[in-house]
Amino acid sequence: MIGIIDCNNFFVSCERVFCPQLRGVPVVVLSNNDGCAIARSNEAKAMGIEMGTPFFRLRALVEAGRLHVRSGNLTLYGDMSRRVMSVVRRSVPRIEVYSIDECFMDLDGIPDVAAFGRELAARVEQWTGIPVSVGVASTKTLAKVASKFAKKYPGYHHCCVIDTEEKRERALRLMPVADVWGVGRRMRDTLHRMGVRTAYDYAALSPERVRRLFALPAVHTLLELRGHKCIPLELPAAKRSITSSRSFKTPIYDFETLRAVVVDFASMCAAKLRREGSAARCVTTYIRTDRFRPDLPQYAQAAAVQLDVASSDLRELSAAAAQALQAIFRTGYGYKKAAVMLTRIEHGSVQGNLFDTVDRRRQSRLLRAVDAIHRRLGPDALRVASQQSHASVMNHEHRSPNYTTSLADIIEVK
Q1: CA distances in angstroms from 382 to 278, 283, 370, 386, listed in the order given
Q2: Does residue 109 carry a pLDDT above 80?
Q3: Dihedral over alpha carbons 111, 112, 116, 117 (to 10 degrees)
Q4: Which of 409, 411, 406 lies closest to 374, judged by CA?
Q5: What is the pLDDT of residue 392?
């Protein structure tokens, strides 16, 4: 059997852990630069607030006290996600972290999966404060179906199990085809034109017809709804690329400010590399103007710098990112987004270079000391001189503190 743990309204739940007064009231979490709603509490959904609603349309509700908002805080959410996954790993060694708020679990060999799921859901909420729903079935797609029922109906006590043909058929008849994992908007529209409204209708189609209309993954979805395992559990694999990117609250016109932010992105990527014990040989920097302002001059470009020796040193990677930026920066444009991407990642041992002038052993000791300082005092405690926090060029008027990762933001008990 395969299970999935899905954190309920995850971003909102993270905010409620440290701000109990948000429980039971309408709450919305906003995207980068406080642009639009990316997470909603059940109370906010009941008010008719839809995903992606621009913040300016919600401002009147906030000012009237009918709605609470928080700026997205990915640092907090990422750390809370790691805590949830660590609790799950204590009980289930084989898991696939599917997203920041979901993970699949290999439950083979567990005799009473329903009791196990309820106990695990209770443990995660008790230890982290995050409410979760558990779905269990013979395939990943059916497990996703089960988790939606566990989330929607309190009678399941946070865990729904689809383990018989009768349960499978009843669940598929109740599930709109648009809610099936793997069915996108265009696919949904095509299926609706064909008269396919439920997951049961979709599962009744012939695989050959689905293959002609869509592609092989759509066939796998259909077969998984029938109970045939087609999508395997994917255990953690080393990353092939690492990216950090953000949009800015206002366009950036000068090179120095943009370079400082790009260096910050490169430093964030370097920290991710070191956590994996990896190193990168290629650094790519990308910049773009505001594509939603056709009245302004438009420009987008990327450049890559190849390193002689793969590195995870924030100094080397930051210098390479700045060098790439220098090659593509053009004056007269207001840049609204930038990104740094690391590729050609090497894991474990790193191929050296005969003419390398860097003392890699000394560098390794320095980086371990840097990471120790960051773990103890926070990521902003030590940085390269040219680095400027990307938060300074973003709009996050309603952001909560980094309760779990910054000593300066540690929660106060009064």
Answers
A1: 21, 22, 7, 12
A2: yes
A3: 120
A4: 406
A5: 60
Reduced to 3 states (helix: H, G, I; strand: E, B; else coil), residue 390 is helix
Quote the tokens at residue 229.
């395992």
Residue 346's pLDDT band, with cuts at 50, 70 and 90, is: confident
**What pairs with residue 285 in β-bridges?**
303, 340
Measure the CA–CA gap between 80 and 88, rounded to whole angstroms: 13
How high is the pLDDT of residue 352?
62
How many residues belong to the chain? 414
Phi–psi pair at 184, nearest 5 degrees: -90, 180
pLDDT of residue 354: 58
Rounded CA-CA distance 105/140 in Å is 9
Taking the CB of residue 118, how many other CB atoms lie within 10 A of it? 18
The β-bridge relationship of strands 300-311 and 278-289 is: antiparallel
The 3-state DSSP class for residue 49 equals coil
Render 108-132 in DSSP notation, one character per residue: TT-S-HHHHHHHHHHHHHHHHS--E
Question: Rounded mean pLDDT of 21-35?
Answer: 91
pTM: 0.74
DSSP secondary structure of 169-238:
HHHHHHSBGGGSTT--HHHHHHHHHTT--BHHHHHTS-HHHHHHHS-HHHHHHHHHHTT---S-------
Q: Which residues pair with 4 in a beta bridge?
A: 104, 135
The Cβ of residue 350 has, within 10 Å, a number of other Cβ atoms equal to: 16
Instruction: Please say whether the beta carbons of 26 and 44 come within 8 A.
Output: yes
Calculated CA dihedral for residues 371, 377, 380, 381, nearest 10 degrees:
-90
- Residue 239's pLDDT is 72
Q: Which candidate, 263, 362, 257, places its Cα nearest to that of 320?
A: 263
CB 330 within 8 A of CB 299: yes
Tokens of 380: 């902003």
Q: Determine the Cα–Cα distance for residues 83 and 106; give it in Å rounded to an integer.
A: 19
Residue 96's identity, in one-letter code, is E
Q: Which of 55-64, 120-129, 358-367 has the lowest mean pLDDT?
A: 358-367
How many angstroms separate the Cα of 400 from the Cα of each of 173, 221, 376?
42, 39, 21
Q: Which helix (H) or strand (E) holds 283?
A: strand 278-289
> CB-side exposure of 236: number of CA atoms within 13 Å?
10
